[in-house]
Amino acid sequence: MKRKKVDLAQAPITFAKGVDERYKAATPLRGLLNKVFPDHWSFLLGEIALFSFIILLLTGVFLTLFFDPSMKEVAYEGPYSALRGVDMSAAYESSLRLSFEVRGGLFMRQMHHWAALLFMASIVVHMCRIFFTGAFRKPREANWAIGVVLFLLGFLAGFTGYSLPDDGLSGTGLRIASAIMLSIPVAGTWISASIFGGEFPGHLIIGRFYIAHVLLIPGGLLALISVHLGLVFAQKHTQWPGPMRTNTNVVGERMFPRYALKQGGFFMAVFGTVALMAGLFQINPIWLFGPYRASEVSSASQPDWYVMFMDGLVRLMPNWQIYIGDYSIPPLFWPAVVGLGALTTVPMFYPWIEARRLKDKQVHNLLQRPRDNPERVGIGAMSLAFFLVATLSGGNDVIADKFHISLNAMTWAGRIGLLILPPLAYYISVRVCLGLQQHDREVLAHGVETGIIRRLPNGQFMEVHQPLGPVDDHGHPIPLEYGGWVVPKKMNRVGALAPAIKGFFFPVEKPAEAPVSPGMPPVSGKDEREEITTGH
Amino acid sequence: MTSGSPAGRWRFRGVLARRRTAPSRARRRLGAAVRMLAALALAGGVYTAFAPGAFADDTTQLSATAQEGKQLYDNSCITCHGRDAQGVTGRGPSLIGVGSASVEFQVGTGRMPMTRQEAQAEEKKPQFDKTQTKQLGQYIQELGGGPQLPSDGKYTEDLKENPEALARGGELFRVNCTSCHGFGGGGGALSSGKYAPALHDASPETLYAAMLTGPQNMPVFGDNQLTPDQKREIITYVTVQLQQDRDPGGLFNLGRYGPVTEGLAIFGVGITILVFTTLWIAGKS
């Protein structure tokens, strides 16, 4: 029998051909692999959230292998001597076992927690990018709303996860959540009793939160993230205006190989950062908190940072209790129920609100520089100022203690700041935007400042400008139209003097020689001039 | 009341009243004077026997150590706490009855003398050395009594003999201490500029004295609230578990302040690193 010759070089081709003949993959795959993505650093912020979500799924699966979501009372007999013999729930006991007995368990727990904080942080940073550049405008309004829902789901995922270990801190958080439910008029007691299965804390809540945390909420997140990314694919990514870029094209890199490689590398970077933080920084030391007891509440009991704005609003709310007949509305109701409701739903509708106000029915695939829409920037700055004051107030006891400020002063600073700072942020940011706009127009009209001061025969000094475009008969530049993109404001940006040196901390290339004008050779030789003195 | 005349008119039904014949005037007067003297002697004697000892301190001599303490007191403390530690309204409280434990805490940690009048005296470099602190404590102790540190100088439990002390101390710490000092002993804010200090560098003696005397805004945990054994268990937990830097979670414990510093870290470290990474791998503008 004659041995068949195998041509190794032909193997992938025959394999791919075989696959394509069976599954008809070439046509859709070609479209996908050739898809073009615009390239800008700010377009990668959302990916941080996506990648931290993947890390959350991976580490979360590991944690479920060891966690026991039960509130059955057990006595701890593990290696952590400071809790040995203490009665606690099985959930807390298994969290301790996970931390101290499972190999790599504490590292995985810390990675999961840091990834959760990073997930929420990158959602907020990504949201700011979308908002300030107007990326949410038609046709992407729905994707903005989905993004807001993703934040809300992340909020719930974080809160349920924070509650699962059943330690002193998470129990305190649950108590506050139950108080918030109870503050809802008429329905409050029913809601709380149905969620906790009776009086707080009951014996069911950990099991219920567990299934919400590992199945329902991640399922929702996964579904919405798929829709979110699917819409980015279908509607194409927005891009910055610039040379060759229009509302109907996409200029950038193909999905394969460059974009895919960059994304793969970025995933590694995110993974590495989370792992680094998990290894270096201790997070949520549950062994210090002890098992949850209603009588033990520590100072500095805070929720994770993305819930802290609500805690802050609750701390700042004055003690206004409203009585209506036999019913009362506690002050907690306004910040925690009405406030959270408004703060999560109103932003969802912002794209439609803005379009209606500006009577804007155009499709926008090009982004706007923040300065070109000062009012939007103002609203964004106002919201951020509000969020920041509320968040800082959520940690006002720690700030008061560490910076030696009276806690009462912190509360009042928060109350006044919450009302004064947002309008101030609006005003300042609108003025900054208008100033930047004006400077752009100025350069377009008069040219770039050269730094050369010329003295005229009559003694007058004037600054020489380098026109960006053609000049008229008198040598004055013809004003240029603003293109919605960066206007060169330095001579090296228009090719004069030395070009900008690339590199972040140190030059990554040898700077090119500065062009020398033949009419003005560089100064050479020893300087023979003498210092001017008074003559004495 | 030296003359017997008012007493002579009293009608006695005692031994003296049983006389058949009325005694002479001079004899009656003499008898009244003797009875008066006897009554006075009895009253005075009973009073001297049962009177509180503190009153007598006015005349008793201070011990040599206390004398030294009084010298220091009269130089550094008298401005606010007044002569004989009786307090000055609006400046400083009376120190009668605070005990030497209180002095050793306040002076030994540098909280007293205060720099200025404010919400709470701050811990600072002690102004008096150990001997001087003892002398001041002795003076205050002899002046008005009060709680004293145990003389055996044992403030912690030996974990080799008594390994459960650590877990018990932890439970007691979480029940009694965390509401102000925090889970990690990092301290916390109280109202109007007052605060519970961090416990990172508190010595066992300081911790014991603090519990015993309730300095500044801290409640007193007397021996009927936390027994000396329980106090020692708490101190064992603080010194072993919280102070010896037992942070299995990483090099940096972020002060063990919980989510506030963790939130700061995720933006200060995580987001910062990753934004620079995006700048590195993608186009700028």
UniProtKB/TrEMBL annotation, chain A:
E.C. numbers: 7.1.1.8
Catalytic activity: a quinol + 2 Fe(III)-[cytochrome c](out) = a quinone + 2 Fe(II)-[cytochrome c](out) + 2 H(+)(out)
Cofactor: heme
Entry's localization field: Cell membrane
Enzyme category, top tier: translocase
Residue ranges of coiled coil: none
Keyword Metal-binding: yes
GO cellular component, one term: plasma membrane
InterPro entries: Cyt_b/b6_N, Cytb/b6-like_sf, Di-haem_cyt_TM
Record-linked SUPFAM superfamilies: Transmembrane di-heme cytochromes
Protein's recorded name: Cytochrome bc1 complex cytochrome b subunit
Organism: Paractinoplanes tereljensis
Phylogenetic classification of the source organism: Bacteria, Bacillati, Actinomycetota, Actinomycetes, Micromonosporales
